[in-house]
Amino acid sequence: MDDITSGRSVDIELGGQEVISIDLDNLDPNPEDVLDLLKEGQCKIWVWTKLAGEYWRRGHLDAAERIAQTAIETMQYTGASTALPPVYALLANIQMARARRAPKLILPDAQQDSLQGEKLKEEYYRDAVQYLNTSNKLVTESGENPGTLPFLTRGIQLLASRSLDDALRAFEGVLAEKPTNLVALLGKGRVFYTKRQYKEALRVFQDVLRYSPDCKPDPRIGIGLCLWAMDHKAKAKAAWQRSLEVNPGEWSAQLLLGLESINASKAEGISEEAKSQAFVAGAKMVERAFQANQRNGSAANALCELFIRKGQHSRALKLAERTIQFADTLTLLTEGYIRAGRVSHSQGANQHSLRCYSAALEGQPKNTIAAIGMAQMQMQNDEMAAAIHTLDTLMQVPNQRSTEATVMLASLRAYPRPGISGSDLAQEKKRARELYDRALKGLEIDDARHGPSKASRNITDDIDMHIEIARLWQGESIDRVSKAFKDALRISEATGEADPRLVNNLGGLEHLEGRLSEARVLYESALTKASQLPSNVSETMSTSMLYNLARVYEDQGDVNLAKEAYDKLLSRHPEYIDAKVRQAQMLIDLNKVNEAHDILKQCLVSHPGNLNLRALYAHFLMQNVRINDYKTFREFVFNTLKDHDKYDVYSLCAAAWLHYFQARESRETSPKGIEDRKKNFQKSAELYDKALQLDPLCAYAAQGLAIITAEDALGTMYGALPGTAGDEAQKRNQNIREALDIFAKVRESINDGCVYVNMGHCYYSRDEFDRAIESYETASQRFYHGQNAGLLMCLCRSWYSKAIKDQSLTAMTSALRYAEQSYHIQPSDKVALYNIAMIQQKSAEMLFSIPPPKRTLRDLQRVVDQATHAQKLFASLANDKSHGLPYNRDIADQRRKYGDIMLRKADEHLVAQRQYEAEQLARIEAGRRKREDEKRRHEEEERVRMEELKRESEKLAEERRIAREQAMEWTREVRMESDEERERRPKKPKKVKHEAPSGDESEPKKKRRGKLRRAGSDQGDEEQPVFSDEEELEKPAKKRPVKKRVVRDDDEEDANGPRKKQFKSKEVLSDTDEEMS
């Protein structure tokens, strides 16, 4: 097409006589007449391509292709095939022009945008390649210069087929000959842009604009795209606006500006009115762009989103299908499938939606929206495991972080699915907690870096998410549960009205933490808020809230308010069993056991199958079981297992405890009694084992088995049954170690003091008294607040055993303190009183056996007083005539008699201790006086030495002062003699220096005044230089290094002869000074 001439008409000569001119501005859409003229006039090839190209420019592709095909037929008929390469190149370009408006694929199941029967883009490209190959073949055969057209066409075809490197080489080949070829430059810029080389692409598009401001396609579009990719958004928008001004009908600039305006409407920090205006303006521009080119996937995709928001699903689905079929990039294709899936999802077509999301994921497995959509469809189909797998696959992609997908996956994992075991569910909950933590932490980091966004607020302001987080942490961390509920309450309050259920839950957490006042305030607030709701909703909520409030009243010790609350609750709901149970418990606390028993029996009559109620009643009977009087308890427990639920774990544990209790309290020493006792222990172990099989996490059953193991209930019961006596100690230690391992695991499961008490028992049995004391004190302080008398006696026993083992009065004192605390709690406990007397007596006995150096008179006097008090206690205990005493009166009387004998030696021990401490005190005093005398002697010697040093320093200072004065006097004398000698000495010409052959004569002569100056300067900072400023001016300009010199007495020289120089340190000043004088 290089031979095409300019002009808006083409002249065709017919038979050499008639010339017909064809006006190119008024071409008939039907090319038949033009074809007849071209055939008749046997026109050259450039005329054919000129007219075909003109039809193409006007959009008449069929007419242009018809002319080109006729040209081929005509030229082949006349034997001028060598002139056809431009025609084939034209046909290739026409095919590529058709391909630009052809679908990339055709949906076989399209519901709104069916394109069945249309030719695909790839088919057009294939035809274009065939035409190009034919053109190249003809050019090669003819040997003519093909020009730039084939290379440009080939480059465009390669660019369309994404062969970027080959396309770039084709364009570079054209530009090597014609550096300003606009088509090649535009192609090169597109290649660079596709390769994400935005700076290079920008320079190329700017060159095109500089060469041809009116070029089409407009290079400003490419300039704007490059600037946008380089994050120069304002400049990009300006380029597109200028393009729209130059070409008002161009759809690409309208589409890009519309998308930019829609994106601007989502920006943070602008008013809602500005957002609305930007969105409306962008929507209008996108719609105009689509009207200008309805076969562009990008415009269809943008417009589809607008119709989805409007709820016009049919039109949105048609545009989504249009996007899919005309998408020229993978990203656009994926978005088309996603939007089609969203529309089908909203219409309830779940299967079609699932297919669309699956197709989107096949193209882009990392696409978050497609994965979330597919997971939602799987959830709709009740395929929870598949949904989890879909999101898990997405989260496993490296560098893939989607907060929405993470939160959704966490919620799915937290959801109990059918067929999942308890252990798997626990693992799923753990993963869900980790996912929620990761998502919330990521949002916090993003908000800190970039400020809170709308997307992050949509997630963090989700009340249900925080409630689910609280549910996941329930039983794991009360602090995390509390934080989640507080976040949910904050969000609920921000909406205008707080949800009373959240306030009630927070009150429950405060209640569990023991902060009763805070819990009470929250419960009352929840009740107040619930009363403001409609009656049907309020009644349901207020029931549990009122019960919680009554519970906190009860825990605060306000029995009257608690009773009123329970009565009020039961007046509304007489069948509320929990309230009746709490009333029974309050009566039990008041020691009104019979009344409590009646209430519990009433509850059982109305709800005989309530296993929780039956468990409570079994506990009530257990607390009131007496030795050889457990028939009622036994019948009730086994009735529950027989008639209600034989797999009830609580009843199994209660039955096991009953067998253990019978065996432990049995005092039968006959062989049959011992055998029955062993059978009860074995039955207890079997029931505990069965409970553990049903509930592997039942800590109480595990603890029961540990107790049985520690007591060797399944072995020889530590000698009660026949066995090897030598192995008893080893077996006992082994059993206790096993029991301790179990207790350590149970301690992690249940928060109860009994676990620590049992561990203390085990440590005590192993004579590990320090660890036993630690366990007992933990249980006493953490769980019983130092008010459990039995536990205090265990501490007393441990400290007592430690004191005996270590012969420690401190440990014995601790044992006495715990015994007194236990007696203070239970003043009627004769065991505590006996133990107090025993410890006091034992303290005196222990100190009496200790030599004087290891005890003090104060401690000895104290234990003697305590032993005297113990005598009174033993006397009262021995004279107690009560029945069923927990000690032997005879032993108490014997301890009293032993105390009398022991105290007879008390005075002797006190005298000996006084004498020893007096001797020690005298020895210490003598040693102190000796140390003081030695100290005074050393101080006197130091004082004398310091005075001597002071005298020596004063003497040395005086000598230095005299030396300085002499040096100053000598300096003045030398200065005066030097002045006189200089005045008498005539000026002499400078002498030529002679090199001395060797020795000291090789050194240059130096003036004596240099030596004197140095000598004088060394006397101290206070002295002035020997020579005056005038004399310094007479010195040679070149300074020589000063050397120290000493003139000996025998070193006399002639007046005119040179003087040999001797060097020595500066400390010797006298010889020099004498010679200078």
Q: Can you offer a commentary on this structure?
A:
With 1077 residues, the protein is an all-alpha fold. Among the domains are: 140 residues, Serine Threonine Protein Phosphatase 5, Tetratricopeptide repeat; 76 residues, Serine Threonine Protein Phosphatase 5, Tetratricopeptide repeat, CATH 1.25.40.10. It has 47 helices and 2 strands. Strands 1-2 form a two-stranded antiparallel sheet. A hairpin with a 3-residue loop joins strand 1 and strand 2. The chain is flat.
Keyphrases for this structure?
RNA polymerase II complex binding, Serine Threonine Protein Phosphatase 5, Tetratricopeptide repeat, TPR_rpt, 1077 residues, two-stranded antiparallel sheet, 2 strands, TPR-like_helical_dom_sf, TPR repeat, mainly alpha, disordered N terminus
